[in-house]
Design a protein that fits this description.
Order of helices and strands of chain B: EHEHEHEHEHEHHHHHH
Number of strands of chain B: 6
Strand content of chain A: 5-15%
Largest sheet of chain B: 6 strands, parallel
Number of helices of chain A: 11
Helix content of chain A: 55-70%
Mean pLDDT of chain B: 83
Shape of chain B: globular
Largest interface: A-B, 15 and 14 residues
Oligomer: heterodimer
Strand content of chain B: 5-15%
Strand order of the largest sheet of chain B: 2-1-3-4-5-6
Order of helices and strands of chain A: HHHHHHHHHEHEEHEE
Distance between the termini of chain A: 52 Å
Number of strands of chain A: 5
């Protein structure tokens, strides 16, 4: 580990102090992937194309261990001389370890590099050569290692290597349905790989045939089953992985919808106000600062522990009303009947309420909005009403996300419903209804895995 | 003839502001900043309507109402407050105020509310409607001495209160429920009567509990 210069204390630059946490001391040099802390074995991943020589085992291991890949490679070769242990280990690792897939973005990297595709047969041949060399060396040590076995293993290795790549790629293609699918090339290579593998095992079988009938049959069956397994293993493995990837992507896209709704409610709104108040630097600064605080709180909290103790619906409503009053210059009168802890349903309904108030503040032209919230054990009903200029709900353009996504979409995703009553010149009333989810009805809210245990009423 | 109005509020600036805003609509006959001077002033000036702050030094708005009503039962009170504390509001209404509006009310609306109270009607702001709905919907233990007639709101009354709470004006409520404005006023007055006459001591206790 390189020692850090003693002078690398955080330097506070003139200006507002950073709001979160201590500043990180500047690193003496950029951390590379060789410096990741040691993790569990399962955290080892083979490196992707571009960084690997063969299967990416050595470089992947190097990343985990924090050493130079060539050290690991030399170690493998050395172990290979030691009666083939290295080769076996390498092959095992190749099969077992997953390839490193960048997590950023939705789904897997969109493009499997062309270089990778072209390199497949070459990599397979190289792999076969390494196996051949190792085995020949082992033979030199005088072990009883018949040449036919060596040939078989080498052929099988090459075939397996090809299939292993092709299988993975074809599954990805089938699932992603993107990009051009070079099916013909794949089929050809898959077939060749399969031929190699079966050819190899056929060799074993034919050898075995010279033994007595029973042992021969036994060997033949074993060889056949193993051969099939070798062909199908990479295929099923990548199929499973692709499925779990796909589920991850779906969860991510749902999360993304929620994040988009939140960003629309907060950041985009603030930016819109800032544009309108561009001639008032003080207010712009205040707005920006508040938005920053909010965003931080949202990003760095788990969502419900931001205040340390559970907020009640009333408290949350008051906060929202005040925020909207300050930001949009509209008076908000809140009337609440009943109260309760701010559970998931309430959180969703209140976020949509806020959005409805913001709409009233931005578009209605009215100087006052009435919020009426009724809470009982079963449901939460919200009315947001203004006496502004109103609009024709049927004529709202598609790109206006506020009403469609942040109010209607948000409620519908969570089993609620929204009624918008408005006509030009006649004001607007938005009604939100959402079922509350006490323990008794938890089973019904399947779409909402984050249901937290109901808290004691504050 | 303009309605004669007396102002009671411990903030001088607020009294001045209200007086200025109402100058065209009503006749201000006096003002006071605490309970004792308010009682004396009201009895001396004999206004039709007293605009009364809920929070007052020396006993609160409720005690002004009860002390004035001992001598002058015809003076009508309209509570006006920034206070959102339901227990104060309910206490003032129970003491005999004919309505409650928040200080965010506009000058025109306030003038209209004063006229309505002077005519003997009740004035419910959305917030008061919310308080009342809350008070009557709370599952209080059944009281043996309670009067079921008084202790429950009819379905229609609840409906009207809900619409008030949603920010609807009487005229809009009438249109929504296809009733006459007069009928709406009757419903509202009967809610107020129930609130004031209900023997349920729980109502007061409910209000007190809200402090927690």
């Amino acid at each position: 580990m390189p020692s850090e210069p003693a002078a690398s204390l955080p330097v506070i630059v003139d200006g507002p102090a950073p709001i979160t946490g201590p500043t990180r001391p500047p690193r003496p040099y950029l951390p590379t992937r060789h410096q990741l802390p040691l993790g569990p074995l399962s955290a080892i991943e083979r490196t992707g194309p571009g960084e690997r020589w063969l299967g990416g085992v050595a470089s992947g291991l190097a990343v985990r261990l924090g050493v130079d890949p060539s050290i690991v490679r030399i170690a493998f070769v050395a172990l290979g001389f030691a009666s083939g242990v290295g080769v076996v280990l390498y092959l095992l690792a190749w099969v077992i370890l997953p390839t490193h897939a960048p997590i950023a973005g939705v789904g897997r990297p969109a493009s499997v590099p062309v270089l990778h595709a072209a390199g497949d047969p070459i990599a397979a041949l190289a792999f076969g050569a390494v196996v051949l060399g190792s085995l020949l060396l082992i033979q030199q040590t005088g072990l009883p290692f018949p040449t036919w076995l060596i040939t078989t293993i080498v052929i099988v290795s090459i075939g397996f290597s090809m299939i292993s790549h092709e299988g993975r790629r074809s599954v990805e293609h089938a699932l992603s349905r993107t990009g051009t699918s070079p099916w013909r090339g794949q089929v050809v290579r898959f077939a060749i790989g399969g031929l190699f593998v079966f050819g190899g095992f056929a060799g074993v079988v034919s050898r075995a045939g010279r033994l007595n009938a029973l042992t021969g049959l036994f060997f033949a069956v074993i060889a056949l089953v193993t051969g099939l397994g070798v062909i199908l293993l990479p295929w099923s493995r990548s199929m499973l992985r692709a499925l779990s990837d796909e589920r991850r992507a779906r969860v991510r896209s749902e999360e993304k919808a929620d994040i988009a709704a939140h960003l629309h409610d907060s950041v985009l709104q603030t930016l819109a106000i800032i544009q309108r108040k561009a001639d008032d630097p003080k207010q712009v600064q205040a707005l920006a600062r508040r938005q920053e605080r909010e965003l931080r709180a949202w990003l760095f909290s788990d969502g419900d522990q931001s205040a340390g103790r559970p907020l009640s619906i009333r408290e949350m409503l008051d906060v929202e009303a005040e925020e909207v009053e300050q930001s949009y210059g509209i008076n908000v009168d809140v009337v609440l009947v009943g109260d309760g802890p701010l559970d998931d349903a309430a959180r969703i309904a209140l976020a949509a309420t806020r959005e409805a108030l913001v709409n009233a503040g931005k578009h209605s032209g009215a100087d006052k909005a009435d919020v009426y919230v009724e809470v009982d054990e079963r449901e939460l009903v919200v009315f947001v009403r203004d006496r502004g200029k109103g609009f024709d709900p049927a004529a709202v353009s598609v790109d206006r996300r506020g009403l469609r996504d942040s109010i209607i979409g948000r409620l519908q995703r969570n089993g609620g419903r929204v009624t918008v009553k408005s006509a030009p010149g006649d004001g607007t009333e938005v009604q939100l209804v959402i079922a509350r989810s006490p323990v008794a009805t938890a089973g019904a809210s399947f779409d909402n895995p984050a249901t937290e245990p109901t808290k004691a009423q504050a | 003839m303009k309605t004669r109005v007396f102002l009671v509020d411990d903030h001088q600036l607020f009294r001045k502001g209200v007086a200025a805003e109402l100058a065209d609509a009503v006749q201000i006959v006096g003002d006071a900043a605490d309970v004792d001077s308010a009682v004396v002033g009201i009895i001396g000036a004999r206004p039709q309507v007293v605009l009364l702050d809920v929070h007052l030094p020396g006993g609160g708005g409720a005690s002004v109402i009860s002390r004035v009503h001992e001598r002058e039962p015809d003076v009508k009170f309209l509570a006006l407050s920034v206070s959102d504390a339901s227990e104060d509001v309910i206490a003032v209404i129970r003491a005999g105020a004919r309505g409650y509006v928040t200080k965010t009310i506009s000058g025109g609306e306030l003038a209209a509310a004063i006229e309505r109270v002077a005519d003997g009607d009740a004035v419910f702001s959305p917030r008061l409607a919310g308080f009342v709905l809350d008070a009557f919907s709370t599952n209080l233990a059944v009281d043996t001495v309670s009067d079921p007639e008084l202790d429950q709101l009819t379905q229609r009354e609840k409906e009207v209160l809900r619409l008030i709470a949603r920010g609807y004006a009487y005229k809009e409520i009438a249109r929504q429920l296809t009733l006459s404005v007069k009928t709406i006023e009757t419903h509202v007055s009967s809610v107020l009567r129930k609130l004031q006459l209900s023997s349920r001591y729980e109502l007061t206790r409910w209000a007190n509990d809200r402090r927690l």
